[in-house]
Amino acid sequence: MAFQTPVNKTKSCFSQRNDLFSPTKPTTTTSSSFSMTSNPLFHRLSSLIRQIEEEMDNCSSNPLIIDQTPISRTIGFPFSLDNFKKTFHVDYIVIHVIATPDTDKNTILFEYTFTLSYLIFKTFAEQEHEKEFGPYSSIEEFPLFWKDFWELFWKYSPCRECLDCLTDISQSPICSHCQWYMYRNEYGIQHGYLKDHQQCPICFEEVYSSSLTCGHYVHKTCLIQLNPFLWFTEDVKELACMVCPLCRKEMTLSDFQHFFHYPLSSTPTTLTTL
């Protein structure tokens, strides 16, 4: 079955959805009321959806549409905001929309995701990570993303073991990936392979995988609090003051790469010669 005149109906469907966010019908979240028509992220999302609808309108005989092949479009733009605890900084947002023609209902099914690029404070500034939200199945779910978006800046912090993934610290201080190290160690303790969990010498809580070259275990988030710089510098001479908090042995470049995403250098292998 060919895709028949999709845009007239999809525009009508989108107009009905867009009415939900008109100034006379403010959409609410659990925290506050706001008008979606003044929301810059909503504007970019709706613009991307309209762009796809227009493309389908101008190419109603396009075999991609006839074969019900999804059409995807992506838009990215700079963004600058720190979380409340100033442990990470979001600097870029990407919106990705996938549109799939539904010939049975003579309409278009939309799915969209938001991807945030972020930097961890007091680490090498060029090392970026990503956090994805979605997928969301309709534009009516935008308020759900909007709530999740702001929750990120209040409830999330970098995992104290890997310092890469953001985790909801009200649920767990470590990410789902690092929890496997905890399960591994717990099994080892139960079956006599390990005497007990390692203890961080800074916060005195359990640490499962994050260790320095000297062999002592310490949370990355704890050690990073001792870093006097906002971002680590490329000048390794300024890093020579960083030592193990337990034995006071100087950290190596391998430690800096492992703990703070510092780029490995061929020379020197330690900081003692600086």
Kindly describe this structure.
By secondary structure, the chain is of the alpha+beta class. The chain folds into 2 domains: 6-153, no CATH class; 179-260, 2-Layer Sandwich (Herpes Virus-1). Helices cover 28% and strands 23% of the residues. It is built from 7 helices and 10 strands. The chain has helices at residues 6-19, 40-58, 63-66, 142-155, 179-190, 220-224, 253-260; strands at 27-28, 33-34, 71-82, 88-102, 107-120, 128-136, 156-158, 166-168, 198-199, 206-207. The strands form 4 sheets. It has a 4-stranded antiparallel β-sheet. A two-stranded antiparallel sheet has the order 1-2. A two-stranded antiparallel ribbon has the order 7-8. Helix 1 runs antiparallel to helix 2. The protein is elongated.
- What series of H and E elements makes up the topology? HEEHHEEEEHEEHEEHH
CA-to-CA gap between the ends? Answer: 73 Å
Oligomer category: single chain
What count of domains describes the coordinates?
Answer: 2
Shape: elongated
Question: Could you give a short account of the major beta sheet?
Answer: 4 strands, antiparallel
Output mean pLDDT. Answer: 76
Percent strand equals 15-25%
Helical residue percent? 25-40%
Please provide the count of β strands. Answer: 10
Strand ordering within the main sheet: 3-4-5-6
Unreliable segments (pLDDT under 50, ≥5 consecutive)?
1-33, 266-274
Count of helical regions: 7
Over the alpha carbons, how many angstroms does the gyration radius reach? Answer: 25 Å
Structural class: alpha+beta
